[in-house]
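Researcher: Go.
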Amino acid sequence: MRINKFLAQCGVAGRRACDKLVEEGRVTVNGKPADLGADVSEADSIKVDGKPVSLKKNEYYILHKPKGYLCTVSDDKGRKTVMDILGSGVGRVYPVGRLDYDSEGLLILTTDGELAQHLTHPSNEVPKTYVAKVEGRLTEADLNPIRSGIEIEGGYVTKKCRAHIIETNKEYTKVELTLREGKNREIRKMFAAIGREVILLKRTKVGELTLRGLERGAFRKLSAEEVAYLKSI
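Model: Structure:
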């Protein structure tokens, strides 16, 4: 098995990040610095930063993230993270992608670096669906710039996406969007580009995986069928 795949299956990181660890000389195989593209097996002694790593059964969770939590393992400012919700009974899993501090919804956490890379790498275009509560009344025509791709803060032009109104009144409009990319605070910036503020943002689906049955702050293990589905999309 290639060294980057082995490290990813050990839960170290995604394959590209593991390649970087090898390039930096932080990985050894049987006491010697590892080479990019090297083939290894469980019979080899493999260490990262001097610590042994080995293949293990990966863990997979789905969490209904509330607002007010960071999608990170720890925070040097002492703010709450999603790991505070999971507690000590769950192994050292990592969030797949990000939901910002003020957003809520579906978050996958796993030790499987290879799956994490599959779900987040732009080339795979894994669809993620959100509901955005936006200030004021919007029309379907107002969403056309967002659907076709719009220049956001920083000069980046977003990819085409699906967007439609599911509720509207004088105070706010709820819009469902499905994106196949995941730039930082992208949806908030898209609406800012048309002069509207996002009041609340919730991720409701990754592919066809939903939050059904999970209240805010609740989590559960993914089934084998759900994991296989995520690997297939």
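Model: Helices lie at 3-9, 15-23, 82-86, 113-120, 144-148, 186-193, 224-232.
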